[in-house]
Amino acid sequence: MSGALIGLDRARDLVLEVATALRAEEVALGEALGRTLAEDVTSAESVPGFDNSAMDGFAVRARDTAGATAASPALMRAVDESSAGHPARCGVNAGEAIAISTGAMLPAGADAVVRIEDVLQRGPEIEVRIPIEPGTDVRRTGEDIRAGQVALRAGTQVGPFELGVLASIGCARVRCVSRPSLRVLTTGDELLDPSEQLRPGGVRNTNAYTVPALARLAGAEVVGVQGVGDEQAATQAAVVETLQCDIAVICGGVSVGAHDHVRPALRAAGAQEVFWGVALRPGKPTWFGTCDSRGGERQTLVFGLPGNPVSAIVTFLLFARPAVRRLCGADPGCERLTAVLDEDYCKPPGRAHAVRCRLQLCDDGWHARPTGTQGSHVLRSMIGAEGLGIVPAASDGLAAGERIEVELLPRAG
Questions:
Q1: What is the overall mean pLDDT for the chain?
Q2: Which end of the chain is more exposed for a tag (fewer CB within 10 A), N or C?
Q3: pLDDT digits (tens, 9 = 90+) for 76-124
């Protein structure tokens, strides 16, 4: 690999410099989960939309309960009922009460709710045994959201709770940033699908499953996954097809071996190299560039990742995932924290190491411990890992008790 290796942080910055949010589109509320809002959402309604009861009980005038005790209750007459979705037909006058359910509209004239356990009912007559203040157990109009208030800001990622807020204000459709289309190409004569018979020299094609899954969890729409052998013409044709999307991810074939045809194929397709070779372990031969592959409509971001399973995962998480999130309109840097390293980690200076770690929250904050053997071919090292601990390139390692920056791994639901 010719030339100096680029640093991890610089490589990541270069990716994000050319990654910009996609256009906005309107989607049905039920399809908005995981999407990013493209604009502020202002409520046209107040939530709650009316004064309502926080408890089952009776709506009353608070002043009618003054001085009430168990020995000397305030006597009132129940004249109607207000239930959820069915307001009372009349208001509350002096000496009157209206039975009310949780969430039901507060009747006119009432300014408080007395809980059912503080009332003794004798037919239409009730005895209120405690005094209550105005506003007791009443939810006021607009207490949650006022009409005209911004309920959610642009850039908010829509999760289950955001969906609830949007539904509560009557927002049936919402403008979100489009999801980037993404294609995955895996290269190598040795690759076999899990359904195929294993043969001498054959290797199961794990990247065809791990990388698309990571892309979907990051927010991309995976529109194609294909494989190609180590043949120049076939690789070139497959690369051209893979470039027809917002993000192209190519696994393997990006080094300088006799059977590595990806970089020449990218050049032939018009891709412009931004960097090749990162001071990172695992992930040194990572390639990144751009290509005007769709008539100049928009640049395709192209990631050439190493073929080793862990290398492909690590480099996707450190470079491609931030790009996916930026194109989605989301914060590309929200998956990081710092932790105390619980055991020594030694390495030679020169390349940053991405160490698969388990995380534990202790009294003094997060702690990280490597999962075990860290070889780029050891896919099981990812099992149980919750983050990638980044040991800086200039360092010769970290001692137990030092702090380490951790890139969090995604969770599948």
A1: 95
A2: C
A3: 999 999 999 999 999 999 999 999 999 999 999 999 999 999 999 988 9
DSSP alpha helices (H): ranges in 243-282? Answer: 262-268
What span, in angstroms and rounded, lies between the C-alpha atoms of 317 and 306? Answer: 13
Find all residues with CB under 8 Å of 361, minimum gap 6, and list them.
Answer: 367
Phi, psi for residue 121 in degrees, rounded to 5: -105, 130
How do strand 221-228 and strand 119-122 relate by DSSP bridges? unpaired
CA dihedral 165, 169, 170, 173 (to 10 degrees): -60
User: Which are the contacts of 242, defined by CB distance < 8 A and separation ≥ 6?
Assistant: 183, 184, 185, 224, 226, 248, 250
Question: What residues have CB less than 8 Å from 363, skipping those under 6 apart?
Answer: none
Cβ atoms 104, 124 nearer than 8 A:
no
Please compute Rg for the chain using Cα positions. 31
Residues 116/55, Cβ–Cβ less than 8 Å: yes
As given in the structure block, the two tokens for residue 277 are 């070779």
Distance CA 97, CA 105 (A): 14
Where residue 285 falls (left for φ over 0; alpha for ψ -120 to 50; beta otherwise) is alpha
Distance CA 112, CA 139 (A): 10
Summarize pLDDT for 224-271 with one digit per residue, the tens: 999 999 999 999 999 999 999 999 999 998 877 777 889 999 999 999
Cα angle for residues 378, 382, 387 (degrees, 5° grid): 135
pLDDT tens sequence across 3-40? 689 999 999 999 999 999 999 999 999 999 999 999 99
